[in-house]
Design goal:
Elements (H helix, E strand, L loop, with lengths): L1 E6 L5 E5 L4 H10 L6 E5 L5 H12 L3 E5 L2 E5 L7 E2 L1 H4 L9 H8 L1 E5 L12 H9 L3 E5 L2 E5 L7 E3 L5 H12 L4 E5 L5 H12 L3 E3 L5 E5 L8 E3 L4 H13 L3 E5 L7 H9 L3 E5 L2 E5 L9 E2 L11 H9 L4 E5 L9 H7 L3 E5 L2 E5 L8 E3 L3 H13 L3 E5 L2 H4 L5 H7 L3 E6 L1
Helix pairs in contact: 1-2, 1-7, 4-6, 5-6, 6-7, 8-10, 8-12, 10-12
Bound molecules: uridine-diphosphate-N-acetylglucosamine.
Length: 417
């Protein structure tokens, strides 16, 4: 196992190029199952989750090549195979193959993902959506088994806005007979990007990026080519890194429109943020001010940025409140930040952070992807050395984060644990 070591105290300066978005890549990869033939995806980040999805598609019979940010996926020989537990348990996004398998082959057998470090993470909405489209769904020895003679368009209303369920329903509905309307659909840019890719494949989707998405079913889809949108969470993480170290960083290849809630919170904390086309320049001259953060579906503040923002609040002047509304237990970074001297208390889904002048470097353990990012941010400003172990989590969602931070002037490296 590897760890990341950081010696805190350096201000970050320079330019960092943001990679393609993990959360946009994974559903688009699954969508290629819908159309036999060769689809091409560019601007693909080299991440462990992308490799896991590649393995999943290969298990389902696809031929996948991944070179220099380009994925070439030949799904001609995909069959209605099983999405096995061993892959699904390492990455929940594997459940995205359910809708495409069902739509193309009229049957699918996909392992139930189970929970994760911060709670049960159900898939009931995915299952209800498949049932509403006409599938018979049962749970068999830990697997979702879905079958349908034909899929029929339906009116779907989600009780809670779910990125995963919206994506799965959209993919299945593309090949259903007639019209599907999804209300309370997720508006996340990654769902908008998925819909645009499906339309390139010949789907007829409108309203994507809003809470009401309409899908007019078509007979068949064709392979397509598409570039992955920039990763708004990686961009937000580097913006927070600039602010926490009182540095000046140019964030290149991002989409500022996708970052409005993050820009607004970092500005509130005292950072100066200037937009220059598709680049943002983030600088901070003083210790951050306290902020209150409430996570919410897009365009609200992303749950995937809560931990990183909390690292910033640990060094802020004053008391910050964090309300986690998407996953109420998503605070596994808190005990680790406390090891670095942070003053945080948690009650239910609310964390109260009293900012301190200085954090102190310590040995800490990454518990999930965004928690690892938060610990690295804290390490950048902590006094002395911080060692973040179990760093495999970070490789799921950030491409060579230590190299990018080191190019910005941080004293950071990776070594064997
Ligand atoms: C969520 C985030 C996403 C983030 C991902 C990984 C939101 C809205 N979604 O996506 O941005 O990238 O975590 O950190 O912020 N739910 C159900 N039943 C279901 C599916 C979901 O009750 O079948 C609930 C979840 O428990 C959660 C909410 O709906 O409270 C949002 O779920 P969803 O968007 O699907 O979660 P992820 O796709 O994991």
């Amino acid at each position: 196992m590897q760890k990341i070591v950081i010696v805190g105290g350096n201000r970050l300066t320079g330019r960092v190029k943001i990679a393609g978005a993990k959360n946009a890549t994974l559903p688009v990869m699954a969508a290629t199952i819908l159309a036999p033939g060769i689809s091409v995806i560019t601007n693909v980040p080299r991440l462990r989750d992308v490799i896991t999805m590649k393995l999943m598609l290969e298990t389902l019979g696809a031929k996948v090549a991944f070179e220099q940010g380009v994925l070439t996926l030949d799904t001609t020989d995909c069959g209605p195979h099983e999405a096995p537990y061993d892959l699904v348990r390492t990455m929940r996004a594997s459940v995205y193959v359910l809708g495409p398998l069902l739509a193309r082959f009229r049957r699918a057998r996909v392992s139930l993902p189970g929970g994760c470090a911060w709670g049960p993470r159900p898939v009931d909405l995915h299952i209800k959506a498949m049932e509403a489209l006409g599938a018979r769904v049962s749970i068999d020895h830990g697997y979702i088994v879905a079958e349908a003679d034909e899929l029929k368009g339906a009116n779907l209303h989600f009780d809670v806005s779910s990125v995963g369920a919206t994506g799965n329903a959209m993919m299945a509905a593309c090949l259903a007979k007639g019209k599907t309307v999804i209300s309370n659909a997720a508006c996340e840019p990654e769902i908008d990007a998925l819909a645009r890719f499906l339309n390139k494949m010949g789907a007829r989707i409108s309203g994507m990026g809003t809470q009401v998405v309409e899908i007019e079913g078509v007979e068949s889809l064709r392979p397509a080519e598409s570039a992955v949108i920039p990763d708004r969470i990686e961009a937000g993480t580097f913006m927070a890194a600039a602010a926490i170290t009182k540095g000046t960083v140019r964030i290149a290849n991002c989409n500022p429109a996708h970052l409005s809630s993050v820009i607004s919170k970092l500005s509130e904390a005292g950072a100066q943020i200037m937009q220059d086309g598709s680049e943002l320049v983030v600088s901070a001259a003083a210790r951050p001010g306290a902020v209150n953060v409430t996570t919410a579906p897009y365009p609200g503040f992303p749950t995937d940025m809560q931990a990183q923002m909390m690292a910033l609040a640990c060094t802020a002047q004053g008391t910050s409140l964090f309300v986690e509304n998407i996953y109420s237990d998503r605070f596994t970074h808190v005990p680790e930040l406390r090891r670095m001297n942070a003053d945080i208390t948690v009650e239910g889904n609310v964390a109260t952070v009293n900012g301190l002048d200085r954090l102190s470097g310590a040995q800490v353990m990454a518990t999930d992807l965004r928690a690892s990012a938060a610990l690295i941010l804290a390490g950048l400003v902590a006094e002395g050395m911080t060692e973040v172990s179990r760093i495999y989590h970070i490789d799921r969602g950030y491409e060579a984060i230590e190299k990018k931070l080191s190019q910005l002037g941080a004293e950071i490296w990776r070594e064997e644990d």
